[in-house]
Amino acid sequence: MEKVYIETYGCQMNFADSEVVGSILTGAGYGLADEVEGADFVLINTCAIRDNAEQRVRHRVRELRALQNRRRNLRIGILGCMAERLQSRLMEEEDNLSFVCGPDAYRRLPELLAQVRGGQKAAEVELSTTETYADIEPVRLASNGISAYISIMRGCQNYCAYCVVPYTRGRERSRDPQTIVDEARSLFGRGYREVTLLGQNVNSYGWNAESAGNRVGFPELLARVAAIDPALRVRFATSHPKDLSDSLLEVMAQHANICRCIHLPVQSGSNRMLKLMNRKYTVEWYLDRVDAIRRYLPDCSITTDVIAGFSTETEEDHRQTLDLFRRVRYDYAYMFKYSLREGTYAARHLADDIDEAEKTRRLNEIIALQGQIALENNRREVGREYEVLIEGESHRSKERLFGRNSQNKVIVFDRADAQPGTYRRVRVDDCTAATLLGTLTD
Ligand code: 5AD
Ligand code: SF4
Protein backbone atom coordinates (compact mmCIF):
# COMPACT_ATOMS: atom_id res chain seq x y z
CA MET A 1 0.00 0.00 0.00
CA GLU A 2 1.37 3.44 -0.92
CA LYS A 3 1.49 6.02 1.84
CA VAL A 4 0.91 9.76 2.00
CA TYR A 5 2.25 12.14 4.60
CA ILE A 6 0.23 15.33 5.09
CA GLU A 7 1.92 18.38 6.57
CA THR A 8 -0.19 21.42 7.44
CA TYR A 9 0.63 25.13 7.74
CA GLY A 10 -1.63 28.08 8.43
CA CYS A 11 -5.11 28.52 9.87
CA GLN A 12 -7.54 26.12 11.54
CA MET A 13 -9.40 25.79 8.24
CA ASN A 14 -6.27 24.28 6.70
CA PHE A 15 -6.03 21.71 9.51
CA ALA A 16 -9.69 20.83 8.89
CA ASP A 17 -9.04 20.57 5.13
CA SER A 18 -6.09 18.23 5.70
CA GLU A 19 -8.47 15.90 7.51
CA VAL A 20 -10.79 15.93 4.48
CA VAL A 21 -7.78 15.18 2.24
CA GLY A 22 -6.80 12.32 4.56
CA SER A 23 -10.29 10.91 4.26
CA ILE A 24 -10.39 11.16 0.45
CA LEU A 25 -7.01 9.44 0.10
CA THR A 26 -7.60 6.64 2.61
CA GLY A 27 -10.92 6.08 0.81
CA ALA A 28 -8.94 5.65 -2.41
CA GLY A 29 -6.70 3.00 -0.84
CA TYR A 30 -3.72 5.04 0.39
CA GLY A 31 -2.26 4.65 3.84
CA LEU A 32 -1.37 7.60 6.07
CA ALA A 33 2.28 7.88 7.13
CA ASP A 34 3.12 9.35 10.56
CA GLU A 35 6.32 10.87 9.28
CA VAL A 36 7.97 11.87 6.02
CA GLU A 37 10.35 8.91 6.18
CA GLY A 38 7.78 6.23 5.44
CA ALA A 39 5.86 8.16 2.77
CA ASP A 40 5.61 7.79 -1.02
CA PHE A 41 3.89 11.17 -1.33
CA VAL A 42 4.34 14.28 0.82
CA LEU A 43 1.40 16.70 0.64
CA ILE A 44 2.02 20.15 2.08
CA ASN A 45 -1.16 22.11 2.85
CA THR A 46 -0.19 25.74 2.67
CA CYS A 47 -1.09 29.30 3.63
CA ALA A 48 -0.66 32.40 1.46
CA ILE A 49 -1.92 35.07 3.83
CA ARG A 50 1.46 36.75 4.38
CA ASP A 51 4.77 36.47 2.55
CA ASN A 52 6.53 34.88 5.56
CA ALA A 53 3.99 32.01 5.55
CA GLU A 54 4.93 31.30 1.93
CA GLN A 55 8.65 31.57 2.58
CA ARG A 56 8.39 28.97 5.34
CA VAL A 57 6.79 26.52 2.90
CA ARG A 58 9.37 27.17 0.19
CA HIS A 59 12.12 26.54 2.72
CA ARG A 60 10.49 23.24 3.65
CA VAL A 61 10.14 22.17 0.00
CA ARG A 62 13.86 22.81 -0.55
CA GLU A 63 14.75 20.94 2.61
CA LEU A 64 12.84 17.88 1.32
CA ARG A 65 15.08 17.77 -1.75
CA ALA A 66 17.75 15.96 0.29
CA LEU A 67 15.29 13.18 1.05
CA GLN A 68 14.27 12.97 -2.62
CA ASN A 69 17.92 12.51 -3.58
CA ARG A 70 17.94 9.37 -1.46
CA ARG A 71 14.45 8.20 -2.45
CA ARG A 72 13.90 8.82 -6.14
CA ASN A 73 10.22 7.86 -6.04
CA LEU A 74 9.22 10.34 -3.37
CA ARG A 75 6.74 12.82 -4.89
CA ILE A 76 5.93 16.15 -3.28
CA GLY A 77 2.82 18.23 -3.88
CA ILE A 78 1.44 21.54 -2.64
CA LEU A 79 -2.17 21.87 -1.49
CA GLY A 80 -4.22 24.85 -0.37
CA CYS A 81 -3.84 28.58 -0.72
CA MET A 82 -0.31 28.72 -2.18
CA ALA A 83 -1.28 26.15 -4.81
CA GLU A 84 -4.27 28.27 -5.76
CA ARG A 85 -2.39 31.54 -5.76
CA LEU A 86 0.66 30.43 -7.73
CA GLN A 87 -0.73 27.48 -9.72
CA SER A 88 1.77 25.76 -12.04
CA ARG A 89 4.20 28.68 -11.68
CA LEU A 90 5.05 27.17 -8.30
CA MET A 91 6.25 23.92 -9.95
CA GLU A 92 8.48 25.90 -12.28
CA GLU A 93 10.01 27.81 -9.38
CA GLU A 94 10.42 24.73 -7.16
CA ASP A 95 11.28 22.00 -9.64
CA ASN A 96 11.19 19.14 -7.13
CA LEU A 97 7.39 19.54 -6.87
CA SER A 98 5.20 17.09 -8.78
CA PHE A 99 1.78 18.63 -8.34
CA VAL A 100 -0.32 21.50 -7.01
CA CYS A 101 -3.94 21.14 -5.91
CA GLY A 102 -6.18 24.05 -4.88
CA PRO A 103 -8.65 23.97 -1.94
CA ASP A 104 -11.72 23.10 -4.02
CA ALA A 105 -10.09 20.27 -6.00
CA TYR A 106 -9.31 17.73 -3.27
CA ARG A 107 -11.73 15.14 -4.64
CA ARG A 108 -9.44 14.87 -7.66
CA LEU A 109 -6.37 14.01 -5.57
CA PRO A 110 -6.54 10.22 -6.23
CA GLU A 111 -6.38 10.86 -10.00
CA LEU A 112 -3.68 13.47 -9.47
CA LEU A 113 -1.48 11.06 -7.53
CA ALA A 114 -2.00 8.35 -10.14
CA GLN A 115 -0.87 10.82 -12.80
CA VAL A 116 2.29 11.93 -11.02
CA ARG A 117 3.32 8.43 -9.96
CA GLY A 118 5.05 7.93 -13.31
CA GLY A 119 6.98 11.19 -13.01
CA GLN A 120 4.49 13.48 -14.74
CA LYS A 121 3.52 16.87 -13.29
CA ALA A 122 -0.07 17.93 -12.69
CA ALA A 123 -2.08 20.95 -11.52
CA GLU A 124 -5.70 21.09 -10.34
CA VAL A 125 -6.66 24.60 -9.28
CA GLU A 126 -10.28 25.04 -10.36
CA LEU A 127 -12.32 26.90 -7.74
CA SER A 128 -15.95 25.93 -7.15
CA THR A 129 -19.03 27.87 -6.11
CA THR A 130 -20.64 24.82 -4.48
CA GLU A 131 -18.00 22.43 -3.08
CA THR A 132 -18.26 22.04 0.73
CA TYR A 133 -17.07 18.42 1.12
CA ALA A 134 -20.32 18.01 3.10
CA ASP A 135 -20.52 14.24 2.62
CA ILE A 136 -16.92 13.54 3.63
CA GLU A 137 -16.29 12.38 7.18
CA PRO A 138 -12.81 13.74 7.93
CA VAL A 139 -10.17 11.43 9.39
CA ARG A 140 -8.92 13.01 12.58
CA LEU A 141 -5.20 13.64 12.11
CA ALA A 142 -2.96 14.28 15.13
CA SER A 143 -6.11 14.50 17.22
CA ASN A 144 -6.26 14.42 21.01
CA GLY A 145 -9.61 12.60 20.74
CA ILE A 146 -11.22 15.45 22.71
CA SER A 147 -11.55 18.47 20.41
CA ALA A 148 -12.19 18.61 16.67
CA TYR A 149 -12.72 21.19 13.94
CA ILE A 150 -15.82 21.16 11.77
CA SER A 151 -15.78 23.24 8.62
CA ILE A 152 -19.25 24.83 8.14
CA MET A 153 -18.58 27.01 5.11
CA ARG A 154 -15.85 27.82 2.62
CA GLY A 155 -14.53 30.87 0.82
CA CYS A 156 -14.93 34.57 1.46
CA GLN A 157 -16.20 37.46 -0.60
CA ASN A 158 -15.63 40.35 1.73
CA TYR A 159 -12.63 41.54 -0.24
CA CYS A 160 -10.79 43.31 2.53
CA ALA A 161 -8.26 45.36 0.57
CA TYR A 162 -5.17 43.60 1.98
CA CYS A 163 -6.43 40.02 1.90
CA VAL A 164 -5.69 37.25 -0.57
CA VAL A 165 -8.28 34.77 0.79
CA PRO A 166 -11.12 35.65 -1.65
CA TYR A 167 -8.70 34.79 -4.48
CA THR A 168 -7.34 31.56 -2.98
CA ARG A 169 -10.54 30.15 -1.49
CA GLY A 170 -13.17 31.49 -3.85
CA ARG A 171 -16.80 32.47 -3.31
CA GLU A 172 -18.49 32.01 0.03
CA ARG A 173 -20.73 28.94 0.31
CA SER A 174 -22.34 27.22 3.29
CA ARG A 175 -22.56 23.54 4.10
CA ASP A 176 -25.84 21.66 4.66
CA PRO A 177 -26.61 22.13 8.39
CA GLN A 178 -27.82 18.55 8.83
CA THR A 179 -24.38 17.20 7.81
CA ILE A 180 -22.76 19.55 10.34
CA VAL A 181 -25.03 18.43 13.19
CA ASP A 182 -24.51 14.76 12.22
CA GLU A 183 -20.73 15.17 12.21
CA ALA A 184 -20.80 16.83 15.65
CA ARG A 185 -23.09 14.15 17.04
CA SER A 186 -20.88 11.39 15.70
CA LEU A 187 -17.81 13.02 17.29
CA PHE A 188 -19.60 13.32 20.64
CA GLY A 189 -20.55 9.63 20.41
CA ARG A 190 -16.89 8.77 19.93
CA GLY A 191 -15.90 10.64 23.10
CA TYR A 192 -15.09 14.08 21.73
CA ARG A 193 -16.14 16.90 24.07
CA GLU A 194 -15.44 20.02 22.04
CA VAL A 195 -16.12 21.07 18.45
CA THR A 196 -15.03 24.29 16.77
CA LEU A 197 -17.22 25.41 13.87
CA LEU A 198 -15.05 27.01 11.22
CA GLY A 199 -15.59 29.56 8.49
CA GLN A 200 -13.89 32.74 7.26
CA ASN A 201 -16.94 34.67 8.45
CA VAL A 202 -19.30 32.36 10.34
CA ASN A 203 -21.82 35.15 10.95
CA SER A 204 -22.78 35.11 7.30
CA TYR A 205 -23.44 31.36 7.32
CA GLY A 206 -26.74 30.68 5.53
CA TRP A 207 -28.47 27.61 4.16
CA ASN A 208 -31.71 27.75 2.21
CA ALA A 209 -33.78 24.66 2.83
CA GLU A 210 -35.86 23.16 0.02
CA SER A 211 -39.06 24.68 1.43
CA ALA A 212 -39.09 28.39 0.70
CA GLY A 213 -38.55 30.82 3.54
CA ASN A 214 -36.78 28.22 5.65
CA ARG A 215 -33.33 29.70 6.01
CA VAL A 216 -30.90 28.39 8.60
CA GLY A 217 -28.56 31.16 9.75
CA PHE A 218 -25.58 30.90 12.08
CA PRO A 219 -27.47 31.48 15.38
CA GLU A 220 -29.84 28.62 14.54
CA LEU A 221 -27.02 26.31 13.44
CA LEU A 222 -25.16 27.04 16.67
CA ALA A 223 -28.28 26.31 18.73
CA ARG A 224 -28.74 22.98 16.93
CA VAL A 225 -25.16 21.88 17.56
CA ALA A 226 -25.33 23.03 21.19
CA ALA A 227 -28.52 21.01 21.68
CA ILE A 228 -26.70 17.72 20.93
CA ASP A 229 -25.57 17.44 24.56
CA PRO A 230 -24.78 19.87 27.38
CA ALA A 231 -21.43 18.06 27.80
CA LEU A 232 -20.36 19.03 24.26
CA ARG A 233 -18.58 22.36 24.16
CA VAL A 234 -19.14 24.41 21.04
CA ARG A 235 -16.69 27.04 19.78
CA PHE A 236 -16.62 28.96 16.53
CA ALA A 237 -14.33 31.19 14.45
CA THR A 238 -14.14 33.69 12.85
CA SER A 239 -16.70 36.47 13.35
CA HIS A 240 -16.58 39.52 11.12
CA PRO A 241 -17.54 42.52 13.30
CA LYS A 242 -19.85 43.91 10.60
CA ASP A 243 -22.10 40.82 10.90
CA LEU A 244 -22.04 40.06 14.65
CA SER A 245 -25.73 40.12 15.54
CA ASP A 246 -27.60 40.35 18.85
CA SER A 247 -29.47 37.18 17.92
CA LEU A 248 -26.16 35.29 17.95
CA LEU A 249 -25.39 36.67 21.42
CA GLU A 250 -28.87 35.68 22.60
CA VAL A 251 -28.33 32.10 21.46
CA MET A 252 -24.98 32.02 23.23
CA ALA A 253 -26.56 33.32 26.44
CA GLN A 254 -29.19 30.56 26.23
CA HIS A 255 -26.65 27.71 26.01
CA ALA A 256 -24.02 27.34 28.72
CA ASN A 257 -22.05 24.92 26.50
CA ILE A 258 -21.44 27.54 23.79
CA CYS A 259 -18.06 28.81 24.86
CA ARG A 260 -17.65 32.32 26.22
CA CYS A 261 -15.04 33.41 23.73
CA ILE A 262 -15.46 35.52 20.61
CA HIS A 263 -12.72 36.12 18.08
CA LEU A 264 -13.50 39.53 16.60
CA PRO A 265 -10.70 40.72 14.30
CA VAL A 266 -10.50 44.51 14.41
CA GLN A 267 -7.48 45.02 12.07
CA SER A 268 -7.11 48.72 13.01
CA GLY A 269 -8.37 51.27 15.53
CA SER A 270 -8.51 54.07 12.94
CA ASN A 271 -11.66 54.79 10.93
CA ARG A 272 -9.55 56.06 8.06
CA MET A 273 -7.64 52.75 7.93
CA LEU A 274 -10.82 50.66 8.29
CA LYS A 275 -12.32 52.49 5.33
CA LEU A 276 -9.18 51.97 3.25
CA MET A 277 -9.15 48.31 4.27
CA ASN A 278 -12.78 47.94 3.11
CA ARG A 279 -13.80 46.50 6.47
CA LYS A 280 -17.31 48.02 6.26
CA TYR A 281 -17.51 49.06 9.94
CA THR A 282 -16.27 51.95 12.05
CA VAL A 283 -14.53 51.98 15.42
CA GLU A 284 -17.85 53.17 16.92
CA TRP A 285 -19.70 50.20 15.42
CA TYR A 286 -17.01 47.83 16.66
CA LEU A 287 -17.18 49.22 20.20
CA ASP A 288 -20.97 48.93 20.12
CA ARG A 289 -20.56 45.21 19.27
CA VAL A 290 -18.08 44.82 22.13
CA ASP A 291 -20.61 46.48 24.49
CA ALA A 292 -23.30 44.09 23.25
CA ILE A 293 -21.04 41.10 23.98
CA ARG A 294 -20.36 42.36 27.50
CA ARG A 295 -24.09 42.99 28.05
CA TYR A 296 -25.29 39.53 26.94
CA LEU A 297 -22.23 37.60 28.14
CA PRO A 298 -20.47 39.41 31.00
CA ASP A 299 -17.86 36.65 31.36
CA CYS A 300 -17.02 36.38 27.64
CA SER A 301 -13.40 36.72 26.52
CA ILE A 302 -12.71 38.68 23.35
CA THR A 303 -9.73 38.11 21.06
CA THR A 304 -8.65 39.85 17.88
CA ASP A 305 -6.38 40.19 14.84
CA VAL A 306 -4.59 43.43 14.04
CA ILE A 307 -2.37 44.66 11.20
CA ALA A 308 0.41 47.21 11.76
CA GLY A 309 1.66 49.44 8.97
CA PHE A 310 -1.05 49.14 6.34
CA SER A 311 -0.87 51.58 3.42
CA THR A 312 -0.50 55.25 4.49
CA GLU A 313 -0.92 54.41 8.19
CA THR A 314 0.21 57.45 10.20
CA GLU A 315 1.49 57.68 13.74
CA GLU A 316 -1.97 59.00 14.67
CA ASP A 317 -3.73 55.97 13.08
CA HIS A 318 -1.34 53.69 14.97
CA ARG A 319 -2.01 55.54 18.24
CA GLN A 320 -5.74 54.99 17.69
CA THR A 321 -5.11 51.25 17.42
CA LEU A 322 -3.27 51.32 20.75
CA ASP A 323 -6.17 53.32 22.27
CA LEU A 324 -8.66 50.75 21.03
CA PHE A 325 -6.61 47.94 22.58
CA ARG A 326 -6.69 49.82 25.91
CA ARG A 327 -10.47 50.20 25.66
CA VAL A 328 -11.36 46.65 24.68
CA ARG A 329 -8.68 44.92 26.80
CA TYR A 330 -8.41 41.78 24.64
CA ASP A 331 -7.59 38.46 26.24
CA TYR A 332 -5.49 37.48 23.25
CA ALA A 333 -4.45 39.04 19.95
CA TYR A 334 -2.82 37.80 16.75
CA MET A 335 -0.67 40.72 15.65
CA PHE A 336 0.86 41.13 12.20
CA LYS A 337 2.87 43.48 10.04
CA TYR A 338 1.15 44.34 6.78
CA SER A 339 2.38 42.13 3.97
CA LEU A 340 1.47 43.13 0.41
CA ARG A 341 -0.27 40.33 -1.49
CA GLU A 342 -0.23 40.30 -5.27
CA GLY A 343 -3.67 40.58 -6.87
CA THR A 344 -5.42 42.23 -3.92
CA TYR A 345 -7.07 45.65 -4.12
CA ALA A 346 -4.26 47.09 -2.00
CA ALA A 347 -1.58 45.70 -4.31
CA ARG A 348 -3.33 47.24 -7.30
CA HIS A 349 -4.29 50.61 -5.87
CA LEU A 350 -2.50 51.42 -2.61
CA ALA A 351 1.17 51.97 -1.85
CA ASP A 352 3.01 49.69 0.58
CA ASP A 353 4.65 52.82 1.92
CA ILE A 354 5.47 52.17 5.56
CA ASP A 355 9.04 50.97 5.74
CA GLU A 356 9.86 47.66 7.34
CA ALA A 357 11.61 49.13 10.41
CA GLU A 358 8.62 51.37 11.13
CA LYS A 359 6.17 48.46 10.73
CA THR A 360 8.29 46.48 13.18
CA ARG A 361 8.35 49.32 15.69
CA ARG A 362 4.56 49.73 15.57
CA LEU A 363 3.98 46.00 15.78
CA ASN A 364 6.31 45.72 18.78
CA GLU A 365 4.45 48.54 20.51
CA ILE A 366 1.15 46.71 20.05
CA ILE A 367 2.70 43.43 21.24
CA ALA A 368 4.12 45.06 24.38
CA LEU A 369 0.80 46.74 25.23
CA GLN A 370 -1.19 43.57 24.62
CA GLY A 371 1.24 41.54 26.79
CA GLN A 372 0.64 43.94 29.65
CA ILE A 373 -3.15 43.84 29.20
CA ALA A 374 -3.23 40.02 29.02
CA LEU A 375 -1.22 39.79 32.24
CA GLU A 376 -3.52 42.28 34.01
CA ASN A 377 -6.59 40.39 32.75
CA ASN A 378 -5.13 37.11 34.01
CA ARG A 379 -4.29 38.59 37.43
CA ARG A 380 -8.00 39.34 37.84
CA GLU A 381 -8.68 35.62 37.37
CA VAL A 382 -6.79 34.67 40.52
CA GLY A 383 -9.25 33.34 43.10
CA ARG A 384 -11.94 32.48 40.52
CA GLU A 385 -13.03 28.92 39.90
CA TYR A 386 -13.76 27.42 36.48
CA GLU A 387 -15.02 24.26 34.87
CA VAL A 388 -12.09 22.99 32.83
CA LEU A 389 -12.14 20.49 29.98
CA ILE A 390 -8.90 18.56 30.48
CA GLU A 391 -6.88 18.09 27.29
CA GLY A 392 -3.68 16.36 28.39
CA GLU A 393 -0.35 16.48 30.19
CA SER A 394 1.36 19.82 30.66
CA HIS A 395 4.33 20.20 28.32
CA ARG A 396 6.61 20.97 31.25
CA SER A 397 5.73 18.18 33.69
CA LYS A 398 4.02 14.79 33.65
CA GLU A 399 2.73 15.53 37.17
CA ARG A 400 0.53 18.29 35.81
CA LEU A 401 -2.39 18.43 33.42
CA PHE A 402 -3.75 21.27 31.35
CA GLY A 403 -7.16 22.17 30.04
CA ARG A 404 -9.19 25.19 29.04
CA ASN A 405 -12.05 27.06 30.58
CA SER A 406 -15.02 28.21 28.53
CA GLN A 407 -13.16 31.48 27.83
CA ASN A 408 -10.45 29.40 26.09
CA LYS A 409 -7.80 30.22 28.68
CA VAL A 410 -5.28 27.48 29.37
CA ILE A 411 -5.15 26.36 33.01
CA VAL A 412 -2.37 24.09 34.36
CA PHE A 413 -2.84 22.14 37.62
CA ASP A 414 -1.52 19.13 39.58
CA ARG A 415 -2.97 15.99 38.08
CA ALA A 416 -4.14 14.07 41.20
CA ASP A 417 -6.88 11.69 39.95
CA ALA A 418 -8.00 13.80 36.97
CA GLN A 419 -8.32 12.35 33.44
CA PRO A 420 -8.04 13.98 30.00
CA GLY A 421 -11.40 14.28 28.25
CA THR A 422 -13.31 15.00 31.47
CA TYR A 423 -14.60 18.19 33.09
CA ARG A 424 -13.24 19.22 36.48
CA ARG A 425 -13.45 22.33 38.63
CA VAL A 426 -10.22 24.25 39.05
CA ARG A 427 -9.48 27.35 41.16
CA VAL A 428 -6.96 29.82 39.75
CA ASP A 429 -4.07 30.52 42.16
CA ASP A 430 -1.50 32.24 39.98
CA CYS A 431 -0.80 33.27 36.39
CA THR A 432 1.54 34.42 33.66
CA ALA A 433 0.47 36.50 30.64
CA ALA A 434 -0.27 33.28 28.72
CA THR A 435 -1.34 30.70 31.33
CA LEU A 436 -3.37 30.32 34.50
CA LEU A 437 -2.11 28.04 37.27
CA GLY A 438 -4.66 26.37 39.51
CA THR A 439 -5.78 23.61 41.87
CA LEU A 440 -8.52 21.01 41.52
CA THR A 441 -11.37 21.75 43.91
CA ASP A 442 -13.76 18.87 43.24
N1 5AD B 1 -0.86 41.26 5.80
C1 5AD B 1 -0.87 41.08 7.15
N2 5AD B 1 -1.86 40.46 7.79
C2 5AD B 1 -2.90 39.98 7.08
N3 5AD B 1 -4.00 39.32 7.44
C3 5AD B 1 -4.72 39.05 6.33
N4 5AD B 1 -4.10 39.52 5.24
C4 5AD B 1 -2.95 40.11 5.68
C5 5AD B 1 -1.88 40.79 5.04
N5 5AD B 1 -1.87 40.98 3.72
C6 5AD B 1 -4.34 39.02 8.82
C7 5AD B 1 -5.65 39.66 9.24
C8 5AD B 1 -6.58 38.48 9.29
C9 5AD B 1 -5.65 37.38 9.71
C10 5AD B 1 -6.16 36.00 9.47
O1 5AD B 1 -4.49 37.63 8.98
O2 5AD B 1 -5.48 40.23 10.52
O3 5AD B 1 -7.64 38.66 10.22
FE1 SF4 C 1 -9.71 38.06 4.33
FE2 SF4 C 1 -11.51 39.94 5.06
FE3 SF4 C 1 -12.35 37.53 4.14
FE4 SF4 C 1 -11.19 37.70 6.54
S1 SF4 C 1 -13.14 38.69 5.94
S2 SF4 C 1 -10.75 36.16 4.94
S3 SF4 C 1 -9.66 39.33 6.23
S4 SF4 C 1 -11.21 39.09 2.96
- Termini Cα gap: 49 Å
Can you give the mean pLDDT? Answer: 96
Strand content: 15-25%
User: Within the largest sheet, what's the order of strands?
Assistant: 2-1-3-4-5-6
Looking at how many chains there are and whether they match, the oligomeric state comes to single chain
Helix segment count? Answer: 15
User: Rounded to an integer, what's the Rg over CA atoms?
Assistant: 22 Å
User: What class do helices, strands and sheet pairing give?
Assistant: alpha/beta
Tell me the helix content: 25-40%
Question: Could you give the count of β-strands?
Answer: 21
- Main beta sheet: 6 strands, parallel
Ligands in the model, by name, code or SMILES, are: 5'-deoxyadenosine, iron/sulfur cluster
Which shape, going by the Cα principal axes?
A: globular
Give the low-confidence spans. Answer: none
How would you describe this protein?
The protein is an alpha/beta fold and 442 residues long. 35% of the residues lie in helices and 23% in strands. It has 15 helices and 21 strands. It has helices at residues 12-27, 51-63, 65-70, 81-86, 89-93, 109-117, 165-169, 177-189, 218-226, 246-254, 271-276, 283-296, 315-328, 345-349, 356-379, and strands spanning 3-8, 31-32, 41-46, 75-80, 97-101, 122-124, 147-151, 153-154, 173-174, 194-198, 206-208, 215-217, 233-237, 261-263, 301-308, 332-337, 385-393, 400-404, 410-414, 423-431, 436-440. The strands form six sheets. A six-stranded parallel sheet has the order 2-1-3-4-5-6, with helices on both faces. Strands 17-18-19-21-20 form a five-stranded mixed β-barrel. Helix 13 (315-328) runs parallel beside helix 15. The model has no long low-confidence stretch (mean pLDDT 96). The protein binds 5'-deoxyadenosine and iron/sulfur cluster.
